[in-house]
Amino acid sequence: MKSQFGRRAFTHMELYSLFNGYIYGDEKLKREQPKHWHFWLPLLAYYTGAYSDELGNLTLSDIEKMDSIHTFRFTTHGKIQPRLVPIHPALWHAGLETYIQHVKQLGHDRLLYDLPSKSGRYSEKVRIWFSGEGKRLGYLQRCGLPNIDQQGLKTAISSLRLNFEQQIYISAIQSGQRSAMSYLLGLKEEGQVVEKPTSDTLQKVVKPVRVINTKISWQRYLERH
């Protein structure tokens, strides 16, 4: 798949570094100020292909069960079409159900409730935390990864959408459901809105997205020392 806006997808080794970094390990950084969204947002971006603003706006009511399949409903990104994305098994394995109960118990409606907005958007805060700014190191740099490679292509939080796109492209083609890929990415085909495929079809396209680290756990994140 082509890179977008000078960005590229992460390589497999880069994904390994990201999802085995300190956020997903056992030790905190010195002077780290951990937030729940630090743990969940990269995972959600990788397994749903959603943008930061979409994830920041996600509410508990956007988690729906369609035909016995749990999905996220995304409706918040102006240029991207509304869509339902099945929740990947790896997110449940990481503790999503327990986290949802945590959010409910605190009385919050927004899933990533501790992600603040800046000028009404969440993406700016995410960008600075993930990619850094000026002398401030981001999660990328702390994982030993550069913002720009030798070819001049950038990696950023939106690169995880490209990783999602690469993988569902393969599974959609193999299952003869290319339009399902367009739907899951919120894209039109020939200027027309793509009709929602069956929930079972969507799940079959999303499920093969590769699990990078089977030991990722929200409870482990909370217990870091």
UniProtKB/TrEMBL annotation:
GO molecular function, one term: DNA binding
Transmembrane segments annotated in the record for this chain: none
Keyword field contains Zinc: no
SUPFAM superfamilies linked to this entry: DNA breaking-rejoining enzymes (SSF56349)
Single Gene Ontology BP annotation: DNA integration
Keyword field: DNA recombination
Protein name in the entry: Tyr recombinase domain-containing protein
